[in-house]
Amino acid sequence: MMGADATDRGLRLEGVRIERAGGATLLALDLAVAPGEVVAVMGPSGAGKSTLLAAVMGTLAPPFALRGRVTLDGRDVTAAPPERRGIGILFQDDLLFPHLSVGENLAFGLSRRVRGRAARRAAVEAALAEAGLAGMAGRDPATLSGGERLRAALMRTLLAEPRALLLDEPFSSLDQDRRDRMRRLVFARATARGLPVLMVTHDPADAAAAGGPVVRLGAG
Amino acid sequence: MRARALPAPAGRGARLRLLPAVPLLTVAVLTVPVGAGLLGTALPAIGVMPALGHAAPGLGPFRDLFAWPGLADALRLSAVTGLAATALALAVTVAILASWSETRAFGAIRRALAPLLSVPHAAAAFGLAFLIAPSGWAMRALSPWATGMERPPDWLVVQDPWGLALIAGLVAKEVPFLLLMSIAALGQTDARRAATVARSLGHGREAGWLRAVFPRLYAQIRLPVYVVLAYSMTVVDVAAILGPTTPPPLSVQIVRWMNDPDLALRLRAAAGAVVQLALVAAALGLWRAGEAGVAALGRAWVRSGRRGPRGRGPAALSLALAGLAAGVVLAGLGVLALWSVAAFWAFPDAAPEALTLRSWARHGPELARLLATTGAIAGLAALAALVLAVGCLEAETRYGLSIRRGGLWILYAPLLVPQVAFLPGLQGAFLTAGTTPGLVAVTAAHLVFVFPYVFLSLGDPWRAWDARLATVARSLGAGTGGVLWRVRLPMLLGPALTAFAVGFAVSVGQYLPTLLVGGGRVATVTTEAVALAAGGDRRAIGVHALAQTGAALLPFALALALPRLVWRNRRGMQDA
């Protein structure tokens, strides 16, 4: 960890193997995602795409078990709880917390390093404006359109200042037109922050738009 | 350098280690009282009761019990009322589900369940008695124009020697319970598609449902059905109100012996409790054998290929039966309310001469004290149960310490083992331990019966919660505690309050635990109302039974209203 240099930067999966109880291997993978790079993982349903993300996230549950190492910017996070990994995640659904306002959702993610009520509110407002949601902090998430909610979810994730981003079929709930715009927004924001992005999808257009390497998991 | 934050502060680690112990603690809360109570009942039954100077074991108490001339009748009443009430309640439940599940009308039936279920057994029993007694409201409504009667007839309608009124009262209260348990179970049985397939193969609605869905449903509601059987055989408060008196069902007689000033009768009561337990076990065995018989008949019916009736006749019948069950409870409450504000009310009149608040004013001060005690016990028991239930479910979420098949039997143990079989022993155990009977002991005893319902009520919504929300919250920096307190519990506010209300209502309705564990020193609206049964002061009974119902229903109303108020600006929380 002391020797973190340029080659350690980004998200790395070293000798990662996900096993079912009993020892059968679901998938085995070596992978390096450089900062600002989007790696797409593709494969049929049941190939273990979402399980792979759970392993990287640290939420892998029985009957699955993880072997190998997950490192982020040179730090081994394999044993760290999800909240100490510095990894953000976006799902197909926005998963905004329905009991909080849009602004409170963003503040939930906003890093503790932003101190003071006024500063925190300003940071939330700025993030909303960046996603074209200016003035929506007080709104009930349920009153936003699907695209607006996904953008709010993206900004909530980014406000937590993650050092890597996971995407789990993030655009499949949108129609074709919104999907393109959302893709551009997500990839642009992630690249601007130099985040390594690991995306699982079964839409080849997602992988093509990402413009990065594509990893195919075996047929399940 | 960036690995700085990993070692957890000590306090946090200590708190985390508590949680895995909660399921174990809960198992102890459920099983220790039942086990200690059974032991405390078994010892006096074989003549060991040092407090009374009996130390040598022997069969004296059983000889004494078998010499009691009412025993055969008491046993028959317990078995017949229990089996008949359970069979009828299950039949009505199945008839409603077969005809009406997956229809639009079912939504209305479903919404009527929770309030019906929370009406305490004793209040429902009083209501039924006030309806069907010879001088009850039904007879008044028909007299004298239809019956020609100017004086109430000398018929033994309530407390009839066959226990028919008792069976009717039990069926009316158990149908909503079995329906609610069935609806929860249907969600896990793929019922809709199975029923559709059956109908596409030419089976009528009811016949198709019975053959395609019912077997799977029954496997899921078997334990609740056993609970109904064990409860119906051994219930004390309902039997004291609606059941025959000379002799009463065995459970009522056991409580009479327990409360007799002659302490020697405690030994006979203990022997009776052991016999009651054996009778319930035998009835459960008989029921289990009956299940196999019905299954064999059902298979033959399926093989025969008969398609069953197509019309809506069975549907109309089942709705009428369900309406009767619900109507009896609601009309009974109405008559109770009328009596509580009745001035002079002569026999054949359908309504009192005038309405007055005199009865409420007379019982008001005492009622306030009773309600305070009732509310304190119920509030504490339901709160403790909710905390334990959340702890168990959170432990399940975090560590996979889930309640499986064996755990389910532990959960149901306090409901399957008759109260009258282990509460007398628990009373003895408390006395031996030197604990003064009082609010704490009674609340602890209530918790045993409250917890299973709270846990069952909260479990389904808890597990149905989208776990990806937890993943998102943790990726945003929230720890497991943050997920619980800031996301999961606020989102589950409605189900948590409902579970609390269920527990509160269960506690309000408890009669025997309050009476026996309280040693007669703790009085609630329920113990007072049941004590009034013998006296026959209808105005006092009306006031107390209504107060009891109100105490059980009010938390339900709050549980419905509060989340709507708190989350009024959150549309995504409205259907939660």
UniProtKB/TrEMBL annotation, chain B:
Residues passing through the membrane, by range: 79-100, 112-133, 162-186, 223-243, 263-287, 316-347, 367-395, 407-426, 438-458, 492-512, 545-567
GO cellular component terms, semicolon-separated: plasma membrane
Subcellular localization: Cell membrane
Superkingdom of origin: Bacteria
InterPro entries, sorted: MetI-like, MetI-like_sf
Keyword terms: Cell membrane, Membrane, Transmembrane, Transmembrane helix, Transport
Domain ABC transmembrane type-1: from-to ranges: 71-286, 371-566
Name of the molecule in the record: ABC transporter permease subunit
Lineage: Bacteria, Pseudomonadati, Pseudomonadota, Alphaproteobacteria, Rhodobacterales
